[in-house]
Amino acid sequence: MKKYSISIRPFGRHAILLEWPSRVDRDILEDILQFTQYLRECCLKSDRWEIVPAYNSVALIYREEPIEFDAFKEKLQNWYNEDIKVVKRQRVLWRLPVCYDLDFGIDLIEIAERSGMSIGEIVTLHTSHVYTVFGIGFLPGFTYLGGLPETLEFDRRPQPRPKVVAGSVGLAGKQTGIYPQESPGGWNIIGNCPVPMFNPKKEEPCFVSVGDQVQFYSVSRAEYDLHKIEGEVGIYKLEKILLDA
């Protein structure tokens, strides 16, 4: 794979931040994921290391003792420059239901007016694309999905709402995403996903990982209500498609 010019800097006494070129780019994300896999498999095997990839960066965290930055920076640069050979990770596509009813899509009418498209065209466009998970935050399980069609790119709302309901599907800039829980938020809300995106009681609280892909499909209000109940009682069956590595 292509190598990039990366920067390595301290991120507090117990962490280091590696940064790639600052843009949303699938090739950059793939390089990051390959390198983090290499670190886990070959260099930083201890589970005492926390490795957090996102967008154009990787945070390496070691809480047991401070990191000797200069020496470790040299190691990291050498590791990155090596001819990395790792088993390619399994690529996953998640298909998630969204109800675009106007009760949920509270910004759909405004988006339609600003874009010159009908609500049906917006839904068709939003569901026809496959998105890549570039990061997870600012809330536990909040997925930042890149790959939004250019005609659906809208700035965040000038005044964030004090409350956005859990499951809300929004647009902001070049991204779409799902609010995993009720919170303040400034994204443009176009629908709601009934699938719980984060469950702290599970061994893996968030089933989606950085690098996964997501595609939405439209469901009726009745289907939404059914999936919502299934999700709440823990019997909803996620649609997971394994792609070629």
Automatic annotation (TrEMBL):
The molecular function terms in GO held by this entry are: ATP binding; hydrolase activity
Q: Which Gene3D superfamilies match?
A: 3.30.1360.40, Cyclophilin-like (2.40.100.10)
Highest taxon of source = Bacteria
Keywords on this record?
Answer: ATP-binding, Hydrolase, Nucleotide-binding
**Domain Carboxyltransferase residue range list:** 6-208
The yes or no answer to whether the keyword DNA repair is present is no
Under which name does UniProt file this protein? Carboxyltransferase domain-containing protein
